[in-house]
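Listing S7. Sequence submitted for prediction.
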Amino acid sequence: MKLYHTETQEDYNALMAFVEKKGYEWNTKEKPTEYNCWNIFKKETVIVIEYDINLGFASKEYCERVYSDTPIKKYKVKQDEVAKWFDDAAGNILKYVSRYEHKNRIEDLKEAQFYLNDLINWMESD
């Protein structure tokens, strides 16, 4: 098991993109980038990575208490990853909105909404 502390929304977004590429998913079978749990604990968010492909999350305080033998690593995003995430988010918003009538309809609009909400949350957190 690995524990990663994400102090900012940017750190969280970068970690989710990284673990998604590795094949991890939430216990609900959602992709890591499809669910934003950072808003629950904010700067106290810890992502729990199981040895299989499952992800979980908890507060830093909880993890320090329950997983006292497991070190909590601070995950910090690299600045070029932030710029790339903005490009990807904007591109995904446009992609899902422009194709919704011809492809997955409401699912595509929800995907666009996810990326738009994530972008808004990040901008409001400054």
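Caption to Listing S7: primary sequence and predicted structure tokens for the chain studied. DSSP finds five helices and five strands in the chain. The mean pLDDT is 87.
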